Amino acid sequence: MLNAKSLNKAVVPKSLIPHPSPASVQSTRLAVTVDGVASSCWVYIASGPNIYKLRISMEDSFVGQGKESLLIPEQTQVLDSSMVNRCPHRSEIQSIVLAETQRMDCSVLGSVDSYGHLIVSKLDNSDGFTYSVSPRDYNVGEGSWAGLCFNPNQLFMAAVARSFSKSIDIYDQDIHLRSLRTLWYPSSLIFMNNVSDSGSSMLAVAEGSQLSIWDLRTNENGGCVRRIMGSVGDIMYAVSASSSGIVATGGADRTITFYDPRRWSALSRWMNCSKYEIAGLTFSSVDPNYIYVQGVDYEVLCGQWRESKEAFAFRGDSNWLGFSKCSNRDVLAGWCDSGSIFVADVS
Question: 4-346, which class in CATH?
Answer without folding.
Answer: mainly beta
